[in-house]
Protein 1
Amino acid sequence: MNGQIHFTLNGEKVTSDRHANERLLDVLREDFKLTGVKCGCKEGECGACSVLLNGVLANSCMVAMGSIEGSEVVTIEGYSKTKRFQALSDAYAQTSAVQCGFCIPGMVLACEALLAKNPNPTDAEIRKGISGNLCRCTGYNAIVEAVKIAAREGKGLW
Amino acid sequence: MVTFSNGYLVDNLADALKIRSEIDVTPYAGGTDLMVDAKEDAVYLFLNKIPELRRIYSDEQYLHIGAACTYTEIFENSLSPQILKDAIDYLAAPAIRNMGTAGGNICNASPKADTALIFYVADAKLRICNTSGERILPIEDFYVGRGKTVLQKDELLVEILVPKQGLEHYYYKKVGARQALAISRVAFAGIFTTENGIITRCAMAFGSVADTVLRFRDLEALFVGKSIAEAKSIRSQFIANYEQAIVPIRGRVSAEYRKSVCMNLLEDFLTQNGI
Amino acid sequence: MESISKSIPKRDHFPKISGSAKYVDDLSFEGMLHGKIVRSTVACADIKEILIPDLPEGYFVIDKNDIPGINSVHIVDDDTPVFSDGTVNYVGEPILMVAGKDLKVVNRLMKLIKVVYDEKEPVLDMMKSETIFYQYGYTKGDWETAFREADKIIEEDFQTGYQEHTYMEVQGMIGFYENGKSIVRGSMQCPYYVHTAVKRAMGLESDKVQVIQEEMGGAFGGKEDYPSILGCQVAVAAYKTGKPVKVVFDRSEDIICSPKRHPAKMHYRAAIKNGKITGIDADIVYNCGAYTTLSPVVLQRGLICATGVYNFKNLRVRGKGVKTNTVPNGAFRGFGGPQTFFAIEMFMDHLAKEIGMDSLSLKESMVVKQGDDSATSGKYHFHIPFPEMIEKLDQMSDFRKKREAFRNQTGRYRSGIGLSLVYHGCGFTGSGERDLIKGVVKIVKNTDDTVELLTAGTDMGQGLKTAFAKIASDTLEIPLERIIVQNPDTDRVPNSGPTAASRSLMVVGKLLQRAAEKLKRDWKPGEYQEFVEKYVHPDFMIPWDLSKFQGDPYPDYSWSANAVEVKVDTLTATTEIVGAWGVYDVGTPIDMAIIKGQMQGGFLQAIGYGSMELLDVNDKGVIRNNSFSDYIIPTSMDVPHLETEVVENTYDNGPFGGKGAGELPAVGGAPAYVEAMENALGVNLHHTPFSQEDTMKVLEAFKK
């Protein structure tokens, strides 16, 4: 029996010995120590555990390990090394969009997924893009504003 | 095929059906329902890499939607009917739409399944396969109750067959507790077609109301073959029939609330069609 | 705008956004065990027996018999047990902990433990409770005459529901026991509360207990008292096992057993004479749940706020906090204020209709001004900027015009707009700052001329580290980079008090400013220096007397005016929130972006409280909707147009003119929302949350 699961994690080829039915979230946090991936609910409802899976936004609590064989996973730890992250981070800093910060790594990846598809989103499109990422602190305004700033000041990045 | 502990990953339908015929596995398409209540001893058959389950194509009569197509893929496909896109647009949120699948939505057999409602009203059929062949059945015949379907242990849902004609004139309304990430409290879909002033179809489906999506073909038939004026004259009888037929169950909202919304939307659907 | 108000990047911005910040669940220690707590599944019972399976090597059960000190968590009173003492009083009450290396094994063991109960009839309805935990009351003027001579007396009942904090990071703590010392670290608002509680449960002296706050993923009051309970539990577990023990809840456990906003039932009467309100009489009940926790103080604040922002000459307010067999309720942003403010704001709206005035005109005609007596016979010592706030709100929302236009609508969609005027008293209620907290801060200047601010103040996301650093930097006139602010560790920081009650900036910030001023005067380059500053009670305050419930409960107040506009779909009874506007006076904003973030986030929570946040407790005392898919909080799409503005009204006793801010926006959202629903539906409404089902009931009643 070949138990190992192979995937690319933040640009590096990795393997996991975990059961195929285990949550990607737990593997990222426990085995790879990628604790920027947060757990808020384990039912796909809050988005704190968001990652990019083959380039699209996914809740890592809702992903079983067996399904990611051969896939590409990007967490905030990998994404934070990019220019796009820098643009988003600068914009978030301008609007003080980071309060408790627990939703933020997932939120930033939701913003990335949005901007990758739509580099000049309207307010409504931004709100829709982050609608699966609950934030209890900000009321979302500062985050929406930050996405607009990032889209403007990071022109050409997306 | 790759064998993991607690899971099988296959890249073609034949292998998938072979595993289904030999081993007790839980088919895993998008995972967005299964993983909510992830079982420690679950053995999954991963379907997300099977090309036959991920195609969307059309023939003369039907749009074929592979059971493992994600909501996002269906939404972004130009072949998909607008009524289905509307339902997906109000379904959960982007990350769930990226992973969740139409086939999973159907097989999970929740009466709250947003796309199943559309398949009901659209007269969709399901293509179900096992190693010895296939069967095609109307979606209504697939369900036997909440969480229960006729899918056998050796079978897989392969495609959803959505009729290509007659879905243009529709009505769709989902009622949730909030604007996104909302589980339906009531969902209503209607399709209305006329030819030369005669009603050819007046289909209505009610989601999140009872143990399965509700549709009453016998009641719908009352309007078929009638002119708008004739239908109008029996509108109150038509509504009364539904008043009697719809018996909601209590869930996170009361049965009374569900009933009121169903009847209000039904009446609005008729009114908007001139009845 | 004052120069200090100019926004800067928050101190914790980068670690949090890049995912490198460590929250309690991100920490792991050598030999660490994972604990899970077996909780009561019934609301009221004696425990007859607990059946525990054979435990594998290295797995432990920790219960009341393992507590070296007293089986009691000190909060305000001491009735909360660390682990059940043989009875259980609510569903979710902790009975024992299972701890071991592998969480999966712990979870399996949990399922094998059987608790045998001798069940008793629980009290779930607060109105049927015979146990009154706390009771207070006060009067002003001659309320009896006002009611005796009234032309008309109007009576109404109001009700507010639970609210769950739903901080994104659940409760979590890690306990250690090393060399006779208990160390507890985790997510908490008030390290010294935990310190006091752990000392007592462990039977240790102060210097043998150390409490460290880790990065905190939101709190909103929900981590004010609860960490004292969990802190004691992990401390005892570490003591028994000799290993670090981590307990981090899952979401459903957190919803089941962590404190909530107190549900309230409020009976109001108004005396009307010659078209004027001459007296108010309020009778208030707060559901405390099974143990007292912070209820006395929550109830006090609720009663202080009972007559709102209006100058009633004659009034009586009475209230009690009662026991029920439900989860103990505690602190939640607003701390007792949102309940009574909801009632008085709705009542004023209804009274306006009785008198034949529009609600805003009535409110404006009665709103308090500087120099007026307060309800508790204290004084409003400072300027109250309601006139300018209301004008600003009207400009932003077009309130007056819309309110008029939305009368008597027909058709599928009905619009409505509502408005509320509220305050939040800054700081600990009554004489708490002077008699109980006695805050102390310390500033240390290192030999490299960096300056460290030592307080017990915690940053739960509200930006305290940034605000404190700005206060010190501006006072000392040194660059921000040279100011050090770390998460508090009780071995290093003095007790500046809890991070609660909108007191941190105004009270602790002021102490820091004073200490910084001293350091500046005495600055010795290259030398180590330290300055300690202690709380001084403002001398202008009329002394608070709890037994009479009279005096100044707060030195000053933050004020807000809120408007919410809705559009109701009469077919589905769903409501779209078209707009939400808030105007706030929080003194000088120490950082404008931080303040706006506080106002916007708090306002959205408050709208949730008024509309969708419904916690459903069944007839067995079980919270049914204990998940994120069932306990509904607003998403980014629910209130897309939410605007906030501040008016600047400097408070001289606060640092750079700042005063309390954090809780204020949580107070006025619910009444503004429900008043908007009244405007849309054309009826008087009396409770929150006002749900889709409630709307449907009103619409169906019209049909009949």
Protein 2
Amino acid sequence: MQTCALSTRQLNLWYGLFHALKNVDFCVYANAITALIGPSGCGKSTLLRCFNRMNDLIDDVIIKGSIHVEGRDLSTIDIIELRRSVGMVFQRPNPFPFSIYDNLVYGLQTHGIAKKCYPDIVERCLRAVDLWDDLKDRLHKPALELSEEMKQRLCIARVLTIEPRIILLDEPCSALDPIATMKIEELMIELKERYTILIVTHNMQQAARVSDYTGFMLLGELVEFGETSRIFTSPSDERTEGYITGRFG
Amino acid sequence: MRLPPRFVNTLVALLLDLVALGTVGILVVIVCVIVVKGIAYIDLNFLFTYPEDMGRHGGVFPSLIGTIFLVALSICFATPLGLGTAIYLTEYTKETMMTKTIRFGVESLAGIPSILYGLFGFIFFVIKLKMGWSLISGALTLTIMILPTIIRTSEEAIKAVPRSLRIVSHSLGATLWETTLKVVLPCAAPGILTGIMLSIGRAVGETAAVIFTMGSSLRLPTSLFDSGRTLAVHFYILAREGISMEKAYATALVLVVSILAVNILAYYIMHKVIAKYS
């Protein structure tokens, strides 16, 4: 039995009166890729955002139930420490309008890492996302000049600089073309050696291609969760089957 | 009868050309008049000597220095206050009755004629706080006067920074203050600078509020509690009291050129900032 890097128990979440997550029991296994799929508005991004407390930034959120990160109760973890161990990559590439280098050292400054370590960390993280050869000579150029795919890679590199153990990806490829998507997917598979990855995706083929485990969500419920190969070949819930075979969604 | 769309289109384009030309034209005429009438009386002596005989002869040195001190002081007071208010309103609080009241107050403040600021400054700073007609009274009065401009422009600039940048900053573990200082403010800097420039323009050109609070002494202000006369006030008195129209135009030219210089400088700084952050 593998250990859960992230888990929830009887998790309920309301945005004002809207019941967005209903009794969710969920587990993300360490050093694997777990995908969350489901139609728009089913709560998959909301669930993802619970794990690094990004929902805190929204007013009127009520959360009941327990969330554990690496075995520790979320409420006992300092928020800055939490966000250092649980990194996040967003739907749209969102580099700061600074230079490439300044983007990469932003998190390091925040966490008070010694300046002399910056060059090594920058190189290591850019290598990890396969951008080093392209960018090593123009680190001080504006990040906004990069292509969308390179921006998204840069954003992944940026999150790697703070050495999280878990990475949350919120539809990271939805703003990218198919070839760029393929490259990011290859990158994810490389990264899972060292990181636990939870990805929310609209794209079922993507979930099938990259993930080890898949959770299917519908109307705030986690309908089914299991190994990706089983979910996509013999789902036990007819709603999962309906979604996967394209009857709705 | 319906006019042919093509004709209307050409007509509108022509009208807009005229309107734009007219606006620029007025500016050009004003500047030309000042330059033509003033240039003959300007030399380095005019800039660096003291006025004699009420300004009939001599230069504008004390007024030049007085203007620079006054404007610099009021910007130094108003920028932290105004920027702080703007940051509070946009980043540190939710939309409540309180923020609405503050915004309403700021807007009302912006609509008050400058003579009233002068009167208030006179009653409060000059008389009540016993600061007398002085640089500090003038600077504090101008601070209140330009505060609304700085708050409004800074607020707009800060609001224009995409929310996604704040969110990603938080997701990397930054606190609200780090996010504000390292992401929001740098991105909003061009807009904030524009507001400061507008304020400098207003402060440099102000007369009513300044006469009431800084006085119109022709001495060189050497301390915060010295009275003094800005270029705009000097110009006003020279022209109003018929002392010397030549000197008045020369003073006006110095005023216009210094505003232009400030604007060019700001433009230059802004480009540096924009080049760094976009």
